[in-house]
UniProtKB/TrEMBL annotation:
Residues 1-51 are annotated as: Disordered. It holds the Pfam family YgjP-like. Residues 113-190 form the YgjP-like metallopeptidase domain. This is YgjP-like metallopeptidase domain-containing protein.
Length: 208
């Protein structure tokens, strides 16, 4: 789902080549806490006031007016990455889209070798994020992942896809996941969730 916002463009210089879309990859790192995927900024003379952003595979595309300054560009890239992350954290994908993502991840990171027969959400996995049955080619993801960042869901999905090829967690298994650039980040996120669940709950404050 694309995100849109109207920027302020006071003091911006006109684009010399009207009507021609300019594309270039953003060189700055995304703000802390946002997606680490490659960001491509596309400038357009036809776009006068709005800024949009959307995901295209493993890349984030940010569309901005051609006359926007470099400083405004950097600021709005950060804003739009934050908006996309917020939208994705609230969106719950269905089993059909989950299957499509499994196919895409297999093609992108496992040379298309992992082809599950079924991929679905389940509500009876509270101690595991995902599971698979290689003999049946079935993958199940815990409903607890719903609402988490998409890179985390993709990691768990890719983890189970790799298990269709390698059953254990030996060196060969982890080599399959080396190609996914957010493995460590996703594992850290999930470890943080588990740690937070184990923290003792503070007692409710009493009114004096």
């Amino acid at each position: 789902m694309p995100a849109d916002s109207p920027p302020g463009l006071a003091g911006a210089t006109p684009e010399r080549r009207a009507g021609r879309q300019q594309r270039r990859a953003a060189a700055t790192q995304p703000p802390r806490g946002t997606s680490a995927s490659p960001v491509e900024v596309r400038r357009s003379a036809r776009r006068s006031r709005t800024v949009s952003a959307y995901r295209e595979g493993d890349r984030t595309i940010v569309l901005i007016p051609a006359r926007m300054s470099e400083a405004e560009e950097q600021r709005w890239v950060g804003v739009m990455l934050d908006k996309l992350a917020a939208q994705e954290s609230k969106r719950v994908i269905g089993d059909s889209e989950l299957s499509d993502r499994a196919e895409r991840l297999s093609d992108q990171y496992l040379e298309g070798r992992a082809r599950p027969a079924s991929v679905r959400w389940v509500t009876n996995q509270n101690t595991r994020w995902g599971s698979c049955t290689p003999a049946e080619g079935s993958i199940r993801l815990s409903h607890r992942l719903q609402g988490m960042p998409e890179y985390v869901v993709d990691y768990v999905l890719l983890h189970e896809l790799a298990h269709l090829l390698v059953p254990g967690h030996g060196p060969r298994f982890w080599r399959l996941l080396e190609a996914y650039p957010r493995t460590e980040r996703a594992r850290g996120y999930l470890e943080g969730v588990v740690a937070a669940d184990r923290l003792p709950r503070l007692p409710a404050a009493r009114e004096e």
